[in-house]
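Minutes, project check-in

Agenda point 3 was the complex the collaborators sent over. CS summarized: two entities, 516 residues total, and the question is how they sit relative to each other. Sequences were read into the notes so everyone works from the same version.
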Amino acid sequence: MNEEIQVGGHISRQFDQELEDVRARVMKMGGMVEAQLDKALTALREGDAAAVADVEKADDIINAMEMQIDEECTQILARRHPAASDLRLVIATSKSVRDLERIGDEAQRVGHLIEHAFENDIKRKYYKGLISLAEQVKELLQSTLDTYARMETRSAVRNIRRDQAIDEEYSRVLLKLVDRMKSDPDRILDALDVMWAARSLERIGDHCINICENVIYLVEGEDVRHIEADSIKDQLS
Amino acid sequence: MNTAQKTNPEAAVEIPGKYQTVGHPLLDDPKMTVRSTSVFYAEKQAIFDVDLDIGKNEVISMIGPSGCGKSTFLRCLNRMNDTIDICRVEGDLRLDDEDIYSKKIDVVELRARVGMVFQKPNPFPKSIYENVAYGARIHGLTDNKVQLDELVEKSLVRCGLWNEVKDRLEEPATGLSGGQQQRLCIARAIAVGPEVILMDEPCSALDPIATATVEELIHELSENFTIAIVTHSMQQAARVSQRTAYFHLGKLIEVNETSQVFTNPEHKLTEEYITGRIG
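CS then shared the predicted structure for the full assembly.
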């Protein structure tokens, strides 16, 4: 596995700067998206919806950042004609930014659902069942952002494997909610809300995996999409 | 295609003299083969022990920083280096398995089979017609004027120049635009029925429109000819060639599919050159 990708070192220092600027902006955007999810998790843990009060505002900023980074990538493609690892960096970044924006959307959706999560004790109990899933997703997002920052294949592969545990936890949450729907049909709508929140958390995990696959493409030049997590290492070796 | 030599990426620069090219320099059914070839200008070695095949009907581009030896290498392929007294070529270079440096080889005939187009369009100070007819006449390729007229027309048509010059064939070629002159030089080269065409930065003196026309011509000519092109424009190499060879300080560092070289080159030096980290 290749573990060394150089962003700087071009004869044109201006080009170094442009690439660094784009990367720095992606990491800032990643930080904002992470904060969105963090607020949802805090609200779930503390049983208090106050933490998710301003998710809307942050989402507007995240959307604007996506457009700005996309424009910068377009300008680099048009003006610099990047090749090899530079080309892969721009392509991987442009794709990852789309995933980050969607993670922001999903985190916003979870936030909106949590705003009404503590209206009664039963709903509160249902939402508590999401904490473990939300914690795992948050850890995966954190690790994914580190992986992008360090441009590291090994941690990208590790993260892709971790998503399997998230999918399993998601299935457990769903089964539990289905049981609750059966035993208390009057609360089906409440259970469905929680199911939507769980679905959004699981989707965040999938977007993290997309970003990790983009990092592997950037570092290794290999497209590992649609490959089983356990086979990726074989493909790269 | 052979998957011959995959080596330590640093080998080509770390070991002085002997080294191995990464990628796929060798082919199964080549038009030209170059083995253990070195070139010297007096005592100074310009090319180090190059092994490379050039495939039938392929377009292969040679890229690398100034002074890396790519033009010197290209000129070995039709013995243009013979014209330089201090230049010495060692190794085994073959066209259809025939040793092109053998004493039995007629160099004039070799250069008809392996034609060359230069950086600056260099039409003869003659008419447009004569520029194309000249080679065919000295090689005795036609029996009469009608056949020669046909050959001139066919060559100009193939180069997309016929419609632009058919009404002024007797006018001086030097009156054509730069792009037209370069296409005329290509028409002149193909009129003598070459099998391989060598192009040494054929578009560096042309504007973008003329460049696009010549590149389109290269694409069309590759159906019938083998083309080896030296270019400083990496975008041009990416656009026109199927394989790309990267030279560095006289060594052939990497030969790979062009699609790979420009997205995921195998050798660190190739990566550094095409991303603008060394020049």
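Noted in discussion: Chain B touches chain A at residues 234-235, 238, 262-265, 270-272, 274-279 (CB under 8 Å).
Follow-up: revisit at the next meeting once the mutant set is ready.
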